[in-house]
Each structure stands twice: as C-alpha cells, then as structure tokens.
Amino acid sequence: MLTLDHLSKTYGAGSSGDKALHEVTFQVPQGQVLGLIGPSGAGKSTLIRCINRLVEPSAGTIRLGKTNLAGLRGRELRRARRRIGMIFQEYALVERLTVMENVLSGRLGYVPFWRSFTRRFPGHDIENAYRLLDRVGLLDHADKRADALSGGQRQRVGIARALAQEPELLLVDEPTASLDPRTSRQIMRLITEICAERDLPAIVNIHDVPLAQQFMHRIVGLRSGEMVFDGAPQKLDDTMLTEIYGAEDWTLMRQEHEDDEVAERAGRLPLAESVG
C-alpha cells in the first residue's frame, strides 16, 4: 500500500514560493489503479516525481508499506526505487537495443556492474523477461530493435520493463498521450489487468478524462496543487469536472469517446496491435 500524508512541494523560498502541491493526502491499496487528473500545472507530474524522489518533497510523508520514502538517502533510496516501476509517456527506451535488452534493463538495479555493462543477465531474469514479453503480446518481437516498433508496441515494452523490476508500486505518466484511441484502450486495459493479476497498486497520470472514467478504479482530481476530488469514476460528474478543469462540453467529450468505442467494435478505426 502507498500512503501520502500531507505531501507538499514548494518551489522557491518563503511565503512567496510557488506551491506545486499542498498537503495532498490519500492511500492506494493493493491492486487499485488510481487515475490522477487535472489541468496542466495542477501538480500531477510533480506528485509522481515526489513519490519516486526525482523531486524532493517540501513536507509530508510518502510511505510504501512501512518505508517512509521521503526520509531516504543514498543507498537506501536507490534500494527503495527498485520497488517502484515507472512507465513513461515517451517510452524511455534505448532505441538501438533490442526489445529483450530493454526489458532486461529493468533488472539493472539488481545485478553487479559487470553484468549490466556486458548485458549478461542471470538465466532466471532472462526467462522472466520472456514470460513478460509473452504477457504483453510481444514475444515474437524479442530480437527486434526498439526503434523498429510502433508506439503501442513501445509502450508495451515499457510495461514489461517496469514489471521486470518486480515492483511493489507502478507509477504511470500519461501512457496514452501519443497513441490512437484504440491502442490507448488496449494499453489501459493491459495495465489494469496486470495490476489485478499481481495485486499491484498504481497511480496513472492521465489527461484523457473519459478514458480515466472507463478504466480507473478511483480518481483523484488536482487543481493548483490541491486535491478537489477523490472518489469513484461514476461520481465524477460535469459539475466536478468543471470545478477541476473549467468550462467544457463534457457530454460531447464522452459521446466522442463512446463513438470511438463503437467504431472500434465495428472495425472502422485504424487497426492497432492486439494486446493479449
């Protein structure tokens, strides 16, 4: 379980500093996929980066299990980061390496330097990487270079790489921002299925509100660094969405999302890769 308690982040000194996060408090239990929504500048990316300590929080605690991540330094922090899998918007793959090598890079924090430098990983890590590639539907692409893949395939490599860490928490930063509607649904379905299979908690920073409402177990809405909503997707009505984002035609947005789904089922959207 992940627990945030009065997590705050201020850029700059004193009372005039820019408050990117203000006393954010919530828990993510095992197996729950939490969607983080809000306009640009609301603090979504800052929150994720505070959790994995790429950004130093100004106040509050971040507990993964019994460990307060906010208080760790040096080797203890590096050890704790191994417990957190990260899936990126722009995939963050090494383009010249193969799919298999990119997945195995998720094990770099667990192997001696000489093994990582020569890319000689233990047999059990290789076997697990094959299993993960099979799970995300890319077993036949194991020897392809990453730069030969489509966007949806690259995102699936990123998912497999994160899982290779054997994480206790997944942080997912805008996983569908560069994908077409059909592939976006496939990727979100894959993430939620894997979290259920592994009883993994996850936080997904997502800009697509209808997609979040379709796939997230729970949604937290941020505005100007503060939590303004925390609840089930079906409770996120137009009034609350307007409070979070400002005025928008939410009915039209949902209708467009539903039309895409209908078109996908009818085979009228561009063909995207199947995710098993």
TrEMBL record:
GO cellular component term, pick one: plasma membrane
| Parts forming coiled coils | none
SMART domains named among the record's database cross-references: AAA
Please list the GO terms describing molecular function: ABC-type phosphonate transporter activity; ATP binding; ATP hydrolysis activity
Q: Which PROSITE patterns match?
A: ABC_TRANSPORTER_1 (PS00211), ABC_TRANSPORTER_2 (PS50893)
Q: Name one Pfam family in it.
A: ABC_tran
InterPro entries to which the protein is assigned, alphabetical: AAA+_ATPase (IPR003593), ABC_transporter-like_ATP-bd (IPR003439), ABC_transporter-like_CS (IPR017871), ABC_transpr_PhnC (IPR012693), MetN_ABC_transporter-like (IPR050086), P-loop_NTPase (IPR027417)
Q: Where in the cell is it found?
A: Cell inner membrane
Its topology with respect to the membrane?
Peripheral membrane protein
* Annotated keywords: ATP-binding, Cell membrane, Membrane, Nucleotide-binding, Translocase, Transport
Tell me yes or no: is Translocase among this UniProt entry's keywords. Answer: yes
Q: Decide whether keyword Nucleotide-binding is in the record.
A: yes
Q: Which residues form the ABC transporter domain?
A: 2-249
Principal location listed in the UniProt entry = membrane
Protein name listed in UniProt: Phosphonate transport system ATP-binding protein
Which source organism?
Halomonas caseinilytica
Organism lineage reads as: Bacteria, Pseudomonadati, Pseudomonadota, Gammaproteobacteria, Oceanospirillales
